[in-house]
Amino acid sequence: LFLRRMAQQTPALTAGLACCAVLGIVFLVRTWFGGGSASGRTTCSVSGTPSSVEVLDLKGCGLTTLPDLSRFTRLRKLDASQNGLSDLPALPASVRTLFLSSNAFADLPASLSSLPELRMLALRSNKPAS
After folding, report:
1. What is the value of pTM for the model shown?
2. What is the dihedral of CA 14, 17, 22, 25, to 10 degrees?
3. Could you tell me if residue 60 is left (phi over 0), alpha (psi between -120 and 50 degrees) or otherwise beta?
């Protein structure tokens, strides 16, 4: 019932809620922190985001560098796709899923070696800036 009401009030969430309802998960983190919001605006700032978040969506924010994410010690999934990133700073060691597609990476970022929990990495469609 809760999911149905949320979907009716926020049509943009309908697909995500339906998908996650099947899995028994309510996935609203993207709405509150990062790449999207219930009002349709993009929020690309991490200031004010609780350090306990496990999912952070910075997709399509026009970033050329990532903000300091070291305080997010429980971060499991980071989506920084569709930006202008060419370098990757140190990330919390807890990161398991990392989306870096459609950026400007010429090589594998050296900081990936400091992610012992990393299980999934997406780096497709990277075009180095000329």
Report:
1. 0.68
2. 180
3. left
Mean pLDDT score across all residues of the chain: 77
Q: Is the dihedral of CA 30, 36, 40, 45 positive or negative?
A: positive
116 contacts 92 by C-beta, under 8 angstroms: no
The pLDDT score that the predictor gives to residue 43 is 65
**Pairs from 46-50 (Cβ < 8 Å, separation ≥ 24):** 46/72
pLDDT at 53 (0 to 100): 95
Q: 87: which residues sit within 8 A by CB, 6+ positions away? A: 65, 105, 109
CA distances from 106 to 37, 99, 101 (A): 31, 16, 12
φ, ψ for residue 121, nearest 5 deg: -135, 125
Q: Give the number of other Cβ atoms within 10 Å of residue 82's Cβ.
A: 19
Backbone angles phi, psi at 63, to 5 degrees: -80, 140
CA 33 to CA 57: how far, in whole Å? 7
Distances (CA, A) of 109 to 68, 100, 112: 16, 10, 6
